[in-house]
Amino acid sequence: MYLYLSNPVLLLLLAVLKMTGNAGEWQTVRKRRGAGKARRQSQGPGPSRQCGGLQDEAPDSQGIKERIQGAVDELRTAEFWDACKKLTRGCLMESLVTGAEEAGDMGASGGAVVTSTEPDCASPDPPSPAADCAGVALDCVCYGLGRFSSCASSRYQLALLLLLLESLQIPASRCYIYDPMFSNAEVGILEDFGMTVLTENEEGKRPAHRPTLFYLIHCGKALYNNLLWKNWSSRSLSQLTVIGNSFRGIEERLLTRDLQRDYKYISDESQQVFNSRAQMLGVVREVPFPDSPRYLEVFNDTSVHCFPTERLRALPPELWDSPAEPDYQEDLEIIRVGEGGQRR
Q1: CB 210 within 8 A of CB 137
Q2: Residue 50 resides in a domain
Q3: Spans of biased composition, class Basic residues (predicted)?
């Protein structure tokens, strides 16, 4: 029989008392170095829980690019990617169609953000936006990607972004990307991919002037709230397709008072208006990402959100009057202008 002991006093005591002629006596055995690591590795090499700290002063940029390409190649053959591609295309197509209607005859009224999760966007084999919306210029904006040079989760999120740009035929130069924690080496890698790296922290307050895919995986709540505030009109909201944390999940996790005080553009406080008119409408169409054990922690709680025009049109116009810029009373989960995040 063996005991695994780490207390040095007990180890010394048992070593003195150990008897060698009897197979039934207790013996001390030191824990084999690396055994715990081997057990963890045997559970599978999935991309979760592999985030490290800051990268070395002299990073291997070529090696990082190869790891990114490896993640792209892996995702490309996964059923997970195929499902993500179809539902994103479907939601983006809906935004393109409703956005065109909005630009044609709605003007700049507005829309409230009450969420509903529906599978409408995930129809099988939706048409390609590039094929059905010839001449439509699509933009992509990515915030909060993280340190992809040292974090496997961020690397897989970047890989999915690259696949989306390719699938939706969005030129890399029209993918605007920012994270205050990017190192100079990471900026260089993204620029080598052809992306436009923003130099200023917008805190998510970016208006959409054309149909735009916002890619905000696992970002702070304030980033989503700021984005919605900056686009608080029916014309602008109809231009948005947002891939990020589930709005419904945010609503369910926060106390109502915190939601209505700090995150009213995400919250469903406008249901008060709907209740008085018997119009409990869900304005955001939200479709969750497919479940995947391998990519669970990389894309958990992620949904695609779009804003159909027919839902925006049904809202009372007073919902859009003078939207106040968010003023947060709690510690935020984002880095604000002037806070940290210097590049290395």
Answers
A1: yes
A2: no
A3: 30-40
